[in-house]
Design brief:
Chain lengths: 252, 252
């Protein structure tokens, strides 16, 4: 049996892009995203809450973040926060995402090394996605630099697998790099991957599913699902777009 | 005239370490830190709010964050958040720190490259500290790797200076690496540095001031100042500890 990547729906609220019948106000964020979550519950394998898009609205945004976390409920919940700091600071961030926000998984930035990530890895039963090769243009600046005969992102993956802690390790590999994704799959067939960048960022679901070669993975799409339609049938349109991506992921 | 590094007081609240007359509760954070800020106002050149230590307390922690930001007032305020993500996400984080929280400066993680940092650099009149060589043990994992004949942290500094945007560029260089700090000063005499790791983390102010060789810099101490005394004279003790560090910084 071939395992196809699951779809992760990214929750990145932008009040300037909401359907026309919502007011362009942070108080619209929770009702909008709750409708998206309810409409896509049957098709999404996971939801990814992007903290930046809530923090940008200050107190009202944080209120919305907690309401959206409630709406996600028992579905698999990734808090995409890309934190990373010295040990006692990372321990505080880990408490925030795993205890206060009850995430099943989170993303972390690797630049500060072992003791910046191990406080997250200390949480048994959780999953920690370390940034490897990200979907953006700037990923070329450092992630592709050659270190010890290989690109830095492979060095990061190897090193991160040696870090201590019972949490499951995963890696972020952007959907905009299908060739490297295929290479990563050959080198790390068992690694769980979070693959963002499908849809608005240009990654192609069929190509990604092929490159992933049946490995354990979640493919994330955000804007193409959230803003699929500007009318009152936005949630239905979001579910249709999500189903379309799932079909493409399983039809590679 | 020799310019000595200024002292930055790091605001990293831990409710388990508050003076005994405070209840070990998030509602104690704002009154505790407000007293610290008031007592050290004459000696601190800047304050650094570490977002993790507020986020860990959820809603109550975020309430405290806004109150502490008010207490810092017109003093130079660094929001130490170490954010970094794809462009539209970093733009949201930049709005959070520079618009909602009215920071004068912030810290960013460089791993995702140019377009993950440029949304912060777009803010004229603000300062953006890019992580270079951090104070923690894990800094050896990636930051010291040789790339193109030099350690990655120097590559990061050179590359970051080429990124677009009117904001001032600064760099984080840990106080626990005085030899590398001296090298960095020779290579980048004009760079503004944020030097954390004095006090509880083991960095020595005299050594740091010497290695910094009169360059523009802020030296950050957090725990050694905040938790200088467990009695009702904690704020006075914090001010004495802060004055002691300033004396050591100017007496190298």
């Amino acid at each position: 049996m071939i395992v196809y990547p699951g779809l992760c729906v990214g929750l990145d609220p932008d009040i300037l892009r909401l359907p026309a019948h919502f007011s362009a106000d942070p108080s619209s964020v929770a009702p909008f995203l709750t409708a998206i979550v309810e409409a896509t519950r049957g098709v999404a394998a996971a939801y990814k809450i992007n903290t930046a898009f809530f923090e940008q609205y200050g107190h009202l945004g944080m209120d919305a973040l907690y309401l959206v976390r409630e709406a996600v409920g028992d579905a698999y919940c990734i808090i995409d926060a890309k934190r990373g700091d010295i040990g006692n600071t990372s321990a505080a961030y880990a408490r925030s995402v795993f205890e206060d926000l009850r995430a099943d998984a989170t993303t972390v930035a690797p630049y500060m090394g072992s003791d910046s990530v191990e406080p997250f890895l200390a949480y048994e039963g959780k999953r920690v996605y370390v940034l490897a090769l990200t979907s953006n243009r700037g990923s070329a600046d450092f992630q592709r630099l050659q270190v010890q005969g290989q690109p830095l992102y492979l060095q990061v993956m190897q090193t991160a697998l040696s870090w201590q802690g019972p949490a499951e390790r995963g890696f972020v590999v952007g959907a905009t790099h299908p060739d490297e994704l295929a290479d990563i799959r050959r080198l790390f067939p068992d690694a769980h991957l979070l693959i963002p960048g499908v849809g608005a960022q240009g990654g192609d679901p069929r190509q990604i599913s092929q490159a992933n070669a049946g490995g354990s993975a979640l493919v994330n799409a955000s804007r193409s699902i959230l803003y699929a339609d500007q009318s009152e049938r936005f949630a239905e349109a979001a579910a249709e777009e999500a189903q379309q991506i799932v079909l493409q992921l399983s039809n590679s």
